[in-house]
Design brief:
The protein has about 160 residues and is α/β, with parallel strands linked by helices. It has 4 helices and 8 strands.
């Protein structure tokens, strides 16, 4: 809240050059801000009494937006990539999909490995579990198993995350 939007009777005032003015009535604080051609900004509304600062609000908002933009630019968004295997996967197909798993892990993404059981394959869920455990064993040097293979409906799912 800025200037006339502040509803408190008195505020703890911080001047434009960060000096403390103590607790002053809101009218006096607004007058001091107007004399300096600046805004009165409520920086701690929950305090008793609220803390207000005399500053250029437009410049303050611009600086905050710049900081937020910089923080967003530096953060790494971890995505979950999915690689689907089948219970009856052949060796070459397995190696190709394993290469994709390793690529995703090296890029810093989590990988969801799943085996989809079709028809009566569900009765041999242990075959799908062996496929997923083999993936985990092949990639163990660069990943941690975040979630062990677990049957969910007609799929068995395992989640791998890159080592820090």
């Amino acid at each position: 809240m800025i200037n006339d939007e502040i509803r408190a009777k008195e505020v703890r005032l911080i001047g434009a050059d960060s000096e403390q003015h103590g607790i002053v009535p809101i009218r006096e604080a607004l007058q001091m801000a107007a004399d300096a051609n600046l805004d009165l900004v409520n920086v701690a509304p929950t305090a008793k009494p609220p803390v207000c600062r005399i500053m250029d609000y437009g410049k303050y908002r611009y600086e905050m937006q710049k900081k937020e933009k910089e923080a967003r630019k530096n953060q790494k968004i971890v995505e979950i990539k999915e690689v689907r295997f089948s219970a009856t996967i052949d060796e070459h197909d397995f190696q190709t999909k394993l290469r994709n798993v390793l690529k995703f892990l090296n890029e810093g993404d989590k990988v969801k490995c799943s085996v989809r059981f079709r028809g009566r394959e569900i009765t041999h869920a242990s075959i799908g579990q062996k496929v997923l455990e083999r993936v985990a064993a092949e990639a163990e040097s660069i990943c941690n198993v975040e979630r062990r293979p677990k049957l969910e409906g007609r799929s068995m799912i395992m989640i791998l995350s890159p080592k820090a």
